[in-house]
Write a structure and sequence with these properties.
By secondary structure, the chain is mostly helical. It contains seven helices and no strands. The chain starts with a helix and ends in a 5-residue tail after the last helix.
């Protein structure tokens, strides 16, 4: 009887753990999907034309529209890295995004830029470097999208940093969503 109770108890804990992990995965997908639209929210809640960069919205009148979703995105990376220990690089990426949020680009230009480069560049490296060979072509395509957005902004000057960041952020969110659905590793 004692063994049966132990097995039953263990099964219940395992079931609750699995259900909790499933809820976390759903939450991660929802948050990643919301991340796709953070720049749209910033533009919508601001009173002027589209600013030069996403980071320029830190000083908008309704600052919570800037700080809350980006902080949630940062925590999404951190929690993913902590919960899924094999993805501990996400903890570092979340910390870099937190640095982008905490150190505004006006008062802490160097630190802000370093965190932004580490976040976007780090995501590109993680997407490519930690890819199974069978998915390498797809991940290379995602990384090329991030690289081309930066080239289009900084070298070809086709658009502002805002649009390059949005495209890069969308690619990162798409990668995150596809990974959480198990469509890519």
């Amino acid at each position: 009887m004692r063994l049966q109770n132990l097995v039953s108890s263990t099964a219940k804990v395992a079931t609750r753990t699995f259900q909790g992990a499933a809820r976390l995965a759903k939450l991660e997908r929802v948050l990643a999907f919301v991340c796709l639209f953070i720049p749209a929210l910033l533009v919508w809640f601001d009173d002027g034309p589209v600013r030069e960069s996403i980071s320029a919205y830190y000083a908008m009148e309704q600052g919570q529209v800037y700080y809350f979703p980006l902080t949630a995105a940062s925590m999404l990376f951190v929690v993913n890295g902590v919960v899924k220990k094999k993805r501990s690089y996400n903890t570092a990426l979340g910390a870099m995004l937190a640095g982008v949020i905490l150190f505004n680009h006006d008062d802490f230009e160097g630190l802000h830029t370093a965190c932004a480069v580490a976040f976007f560049g780090g995501n590109a490296v993680v997407m490519y470097w930690f890819s199974p060979r069978k998915e390498l072509w797809f991940k290379a395509l995602l990384v090329a999208g991030i690289a081309l957005s930066m080239v289009g902004c900084f070298y070809l000057q086709w658009f502002t940093l805002f649009w390059a960041e949005w495209l890069s952020f969308a690619i990162i969110a798409l990668h995150y969503i596809l990974e959480s659905w198990g469509l890519i590793d």
